[in-house]
UniProtKB/TrEMBL annotation:
InterPro entries: Uncharacterised_A0KLC6
Source organism (scientific name): Idiomarina rhizosphaerae
Protein's name in the database: DUF3802 family protein
A Pfam family matched in the record: DUF3802
Length: 116
């Protein structure tokens, strides 16, 4: 659906270009009592639930989206493996929010093309 698209590949390249956000750990900026992994998974789950709520999808498409989301989580875990169990900084949370929003946009765009 989206993980094989040029848009997603560019999004992963954008993620790798932003790795300094995840390597610069400021102890004074760590305020979260949850891990980066927890935050990332929660944000992706919320975003995919929004996709489901905003679109009338049959079960096959829903399952495709779940599989795609699993692949996205896997990719994120691969790229961010060294910092997933740290507490996110506000800058890291902001980036994850932006990234997840861009992923949702890719899904929305693809689902829109199905309706046309």
């Amino acid at each position: 659906m989206i993980v094989e698209t040029d848009g997603y590949i560019e999004l992963i390249q954008y993620l790798t270009g932003q790795l300094p956000v995840f390597t610069e750990q400021s102890s004074s900026a760590r305020t979260a009592d949850y891990t980066l992994r927890d935050f990332m998974e929660e944000r992706l789950s919320e975003s995919m639930m929004a996709v489901f709520e905003q679109n009338e999808l049959d079960e096959a498409v829903r399952l495709d989206i779940v599989r795609e989301t699993d692949a996205i989580v896997y990719d994120l875990e691969e790229v961010l493996s060294k910092v997933l169990d740290t507490h996110p900084t506000p800058q890291q949370e902001a980036f994850i929010n932006e990234f997840v929003g861009l992923v949702k946009n890719l899904f929305d765009e693809r689902l829109q093309s199905y309706r046309l």
